[in-house]
User: Fold this.
Amino acid sequence: MKIYLLGTCSGTEPMPGRNHVSWALDVNGRLYWFDAGESCSHTAYLLGLDLMAVRSIFISHPHIDHVAGFAKLLWCLRKLDSRHIGSMEGKTVDVFMPNPRLWPAQLEFMKEMENGFKINFTLNDRVIESGVIFDDGAVHVEALRNGHIASRESFSFRIQAEGKTIVFSGDVKSITELTEWLDDGCDLFLMETGHHKVADVCEFVKARSQVKRLVFIHHGREILEHYEDAIETAHSILGTDGRVQIGYDRQIIEL
Assistant:
């Protein structure tokens, strides 16, 4: 099982070497996509990922740094299929959105493009609610509504596959919203720092030995502008044995 960090930046102005947040989980050659920041499909393709293997796409919330690459991802599937670089014929891609307005808007936008976005695969749109939202026998995904935006159309995800557990914060108002999941333990905690301090997150994780590994993503200015200070702070709290790391674009994590 591998995790590909395709973008690790929060919703700032463009930053050298970092795109907005997106990552993909590879389980037995099938891809499960979480958030879709700018250039995510481009980065994935150049990393050698088989985009034809995309099984599901999960969008945590409708902010531009999490969805700007979504339409391009779907367009890449269509383009690669039409050029016979793999095949999507007869396949289904489940698309999980945090509110019912997003999918019709995206689809209408796509249909205004070349050939009306004619495809020979199925896009199965689903609206996210708290609880178990996906299970194909290989990957199990739960969603937890969080307080990041006032409309409450924002979610965190817990993913289980091959006996491992991943918690992805999405964007959260408070890390305490994830207490129950983290108390249960996880092999990897992907936590945003666009809205939170490195020290605060590390102290929260330090009190929970059952969280085996913390990787920061969705970086805010504390990391983007003061990387060395941030990693020194993280190591001073959680040590230098690999329990904490600041993620970077194109990073591959094996579990």
